[in-house]
Amino acid sequence: MTAVVEEAPARPDTALRSALPVANFLSFFAIAAVEFAVPFVAVSTLGASSLVIAGLGICRFAPQVLLARTAALVVERYDQRTVMLGSELLRVLAFLLSALALAVGPGWGLAVFGLANIALACGSVLTSVSTQVLVPAVFPDKDLPGIYARLSIAESTADGLAPFLTGVGLGLLGVSSTFAVAAALALGACALLVRIPRIRVPADAREDADAGKQRTGAPGRTTLRRGLRLNLATPPLRILTGWAVAYNLGQCIIEALLLIALLDQTPITAAGYGVLRTCVVLFAALGASVTERLPARLRTGLGTSVFGCGAVASYALLGLGVHLGGATGLALVLAGFVIDEFCSGVVLVRIQTFRARAIAQEDRAIATAAYRAANLTAVPVGFALGGVAGLFLSPVGTLFTIGMLMLLPAALVLSRSVREAT
Predict the structure, then answer these.
(1) What is the rounded CA–CA span in Å between residue 333 and residue 336?
(2) Measured distance CA(126)–CA(402) in Å, rounded
(3) Model confidence pLDDT, tens digit, residues 312-329
(4) How does pLDDT run across 54-64, given as a tens digit for each residue?
């Protein structure tokens, strides 16, 4: 089956090749700026408690899980230009709401921040699902790794630069002006996204689904259960889906305890920790940028295995560093962060390319939505497990144990079925 394109130029991929990564950078820069600024402003200006900050986090991520199926339905029903522009306008709304939060008083201001995070979450899930439908439909198969690499570089660079520049903006421009700048960036992304052709999920697939639903009374093709089955349909898909969930779960357990353990075991300072976390993110951009320059053998499933193994195994090095403590331990923690970000940059491009080739066009929306729902569910579960573990167990011992357990998905992704996948 092929995608339906309405009102598309003769070579839509030519216009999008540069426009989509730039729009991605502007969008993710604005998102990262708000994700940094909202908790900071909520605590420093509006007096938010830890419970309120947790609630804002729930508002940011819960809709992406709860509305995953709805996002897939929207992506299947409407053309991708409309979906991408709509999701970007949701971000503009989120930023404008954030800019107004201080004007309505502390109590209502925190509620407005919550609404802004919900709008930001809805935009994020729509963009993610739509992108995985759009890119394979517009670009030739041989160009997919390069396109995904550009998108990943844009996202990682934005994630690395935004916290620092947002902090500067809050100091120089003030809260409302900083959020207004974020809204302007999102509007700039909208101006670029109008170049997207009106790609639709194949019409015959939608009609077959509707007919089957009418005949059987079943809920049709677009269900999260079916999406999960698609992600487990073949051995490589099963392993890579399990690897991703294990990666997110383990990472979030570690994140919940890491700063406490580092401050206790190593000579790191708050400023040093901030610089460390900002700088290592740029290694993800470096990893994505070299993906297509790797030796030919590593541009296949073998590369997915090797760098996927490196990304999760790096947490064993991190756990060891925290366990050893001191300057040596801190050096090992830094090395673990660098390896994780670099390998993640490579493997994300490889996995996105593989999924684009392995999952049919008419199934990509619901498969992507289910994949995101599974991984985003692992995030709060991981933080909750880490938080509870920190109450009853030693943070250092827990980090070391979880780091060693991360070697299990590292070994799993080295399986033959993944190595031989294209």
Answers:
(1) 5
(2) 33
(3) 999 999 999 999 989 899
(4) 788 788 888 88
**pLDDT at residue number 13:** 60
Q: What is the tens place of the pLDDT at every residue in 131-143?
A: 888 888 888 888 8
